[in-house]
Amino acid sequence: MENILEVENLSKTFRLHNVNKEIHAIENISFSVKGGEFVGITGKSGSGKSTILKCIYRTYLPQGGDIWYKSEKFGPINLREATEREIIYLRKFEIGYVSQFLNALPRITARELVKQAIVEMGYKEAYAEEETEKILTHFELDPELWDSYVATFSGGEKLRLNIARAMVKRPKLLLLDEPTASLDDESKEKVRELMEQLSHEGTTMLGIFHDTLFMQNLCDVEYRMQEGQLVNFRKRSI
């Protein structure tokens, strides 16, 4: 299987102007991800895990290194140098991102949020409505909440909705930033089921986790971060 993602010597530094100090979040990070593979990154808080994902998604612009992604539309593209227009396209059609926090307009309902994600990919309203109801049901969100504003949801409900919105698009590459952080065991199992389904359908996933039990028998490859660097590599035994 060919690599879908190649990260080469990636570095990101944050400048704290108020104290005139630089923090090296990650330094010389290099790894590759094969198509259809599920790669997990573990490590303590502050070790640089989220920074890697945000550089790939281009929430952060790296100071050094390259991020080569094999796009269906653009072919091999360096995400570090991609234009804003290219990044917007990739986020809409190819690269999904799940964080611990739901960013949504205050006056949008759960149904509208998920449906919007499907419609913007070019699907018809009827299909979008059907898929929306299917995934909201899977995550056991109370149907009485579907037409409520997401701002009124609990933390756990928002996280489930965030995962639903990203997964319903079936992206080519899915980035997962602590996707099960505040979920109960039953909700975690629902997330696992969908991850396994997406994996079988060919979605490539790169996720960071504190919950190593959740990762067991799910990730094909595990990297461990320590003080901004990758220090260990482990491949799942078959």
Automatic annotation (TrEMBL):
InterPro entries: AAA+_ATPase, ABC_transporter-like_ATP-bd, CP_lyase_PhnL, MetN_ABC_transporter-like, P-loop_NTPase. Residues 5-238 form the ABC transporter domain. It is found in: Cell membrane. It is a peripheral membrane protein. Keywords: ATP-binding, Cell membrane, Membrane, Nucleotide-binding, Transferase, Transport. The keyword Nucleotide-binding applies. Coiled coil: none annotated. Gene3D superfamilies: P-loop containing nucleotide triphosphate hydrolases. Its EC number is 2.7.8.37. The keyword Kinase does not apply. It comes from the Bacteria. SMART domains: AAA. One of its GO terms (molecular function) is alpha-D-ribose 1-methylphosphonate 5-triphosphate synthase activity. Belongs to the ABC transporter superfamily. PANTHER family: AMINO ACID IMPORT ATP-BINDING PROTEIN, GLUTAMATE_ASPARTATE IMPORT ATP-BINDING PROTEIN GLTL. This is Alpha-D-ribose 1-methylphosphonate 5-triphosphate synthase subunit PhnL.
